[in-house]
Amino acid sequence: MTGRLAGRVALISGGASGMGAAHARAFAEEGASVVIGDIADEAGARLADELGDRVAYVHLDVTRSEDWDTAVAEATRRFGELNVLVNNAGVLDGGPLGAYTEKQWQQVLSVNLTGPFLGLTAARDALVTARPSSVVNISSAAGIQGVAGMHAYTASKFGVRGLTKSAALELAPHGVRVNSVHPGGILTPMIGAMAGDATVDRDANTLARLGLPEEVTSVVVFLASTESSYCNGGEYVVDGGMTAGSTFG
Length: 249
What we know:
The chain is α/β, with parallel strands linked by helices.
């Protein structure tokens, strides 16, 4: 353990699996105390037990403000303060216009965009009290460029990008930095469930492969730490070059 996050207390939504679990593992290894929030109670509790006494699990449906209030209260009760929020929870869903339903649209926006807003709302006072603090919002390469057939997902991730900037401007005077991370195709259960295999996005970036959760985690750790003390309102793309453009010939 190098202790890059020693003394930090983090709440990570969607922390029971995929990228969120990778973030939780790395945060614990780097010395942070961590509250894992998720709706997958068994997986979340198991991961918290595995990672030790400085990691706790709390049930967190990011679409419910009362769940957010409980998660923030648990972080401050158990570890004394909260100075890192990672808005990681998200869902992936798509379909063509004319077939994609309003219910599907609302569900994706509720988790992917309203969730981070509710997280910022619930954690705001605790983050200010424990400053210097950091918020890391997990957006997507789909928050940089459009994806055909992924209308709600693209809209939600562009929204997270905008929310990051408005929150960064508002909270900077209070000692809270807010940045967004934009992964491309990452090898997680969510990608596998959507694609049916691990080939999605592999030909859409310069490295011709999916990324690993740990490759995103490295950026999240940096933004959560005081190493990134001059980074605010920024966009950090981890997409293998997907959004760099197109090559011909």
